[in-house]
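#structure-requests
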Amino acid sequence: MAESSVPSRERIVAGAADLISRRGLSAASIRELARHAKAPLGSTYHYFPEGKQQLATEAVRYAGGAVNRVLRKELGAGPVAGLRAFLALWRGIVVESDFRAGCPVLAVAVEEPPADEIPPALAAAAEAFEEWERLLADALREHGVAPDQAPELAALVVAAVEGATAMCRAKRSAQPLDQVARQLEAVITGALGPSA
């Protein structure tokens, strides 16, 4: 959960990301998002005058950015290191939360949007997934994976890890992530060729 020494706006965004990762967006009111962040409701509306959708969009961007930073750092050591870090991040979140939290980006992505409208939080979720895929695909290409195969392999990684994270929550076990980790590492190692 957010630290009290973190500035109010950032604490609210981090708290919202955490609550969304646990309950989804539809199940959380702005009052609950503020309470979870240990922030006054008035401050929440001050920082997010457009309400829940604005806060949710910022929370998704916050979560997406946090994953981006991990991937950028670890992909410098290669695609396998990046994959391991990506998996370890989500494994840590589900296990440390006693299988109560998952990915806030996925939580927003799976909720039904209003008819004829793409809410900003859903667009932010799509952007987060696309950025994770781009980072992975770039690293794969840099390490010798064919240019047309790299984006598909990156999409496989993101989809498999996100799905396994949801499965961990349902099964109350880290086993799905552990199984996916072994298989994805084998696929990536195979795609990198004998020099990997």
